[in-house]
Design brief:
This is Partition protein. Keywords: Plasmid. This protein is of the alpha+beta class and about 200 residues long. The chain has one domain. Helices cover about 25% and strands about 40% of the residues.
Length: about 200
Amino acid sequence: MANTLEDRLKQKRLEISLNEVTQVSNTSDNKGVFTSIETDENNRKLYYTKMFDSFHGFGIKKRKNDIFYISLRDLLDQDKKESFHLFSLKAGDKFLGMFYGFKRRKKPVGLPYIHEVTKENKTINIYKAYYVEFRFKTGSVFCLVNGIRLLIRKDRLETKYCQTLLEALIRLEKEIHEFYNQKLPYGGLITKWISKKLK
């Protein structure tokens, strides 16, 4: 009986701590940074952000060192930025690391661009949503970043945009692991992931 009550109390604490993740000070509008929140078969909460272009900034909040903020650039408007927070661990939770990957989308995201030769406005449909996952024992946050798809293309990897994004991800890995008092695997994570996936 006591064990069941203790389990329910732990679950309630978990729900409260995970709900804090969605209480984001959004810099652009009131829609929020997360497009969906799901529960997996192990009762873990999975948070998915909108698709963003790249990172704007991140780090530990100056006045609150138990909050790690991540600010991202909008996919279509580089001047528009939104952010969310990762919090320090609560009892019973554990940071399991950062992971990279992609999910296939049912509906594509249309990304407008100007053709280099003809100077015409065109749209490319994106069916794969590349993400950085912040995985915890109690749930995960999937941060969808469109620029990651370019990191696995040999013809694009050496561009200034890709090198800047790669440097940002290397710094993010280091700072997140320090924030959660975890040792970053030797050589980092993104470089190993790129070398496996490079086309």
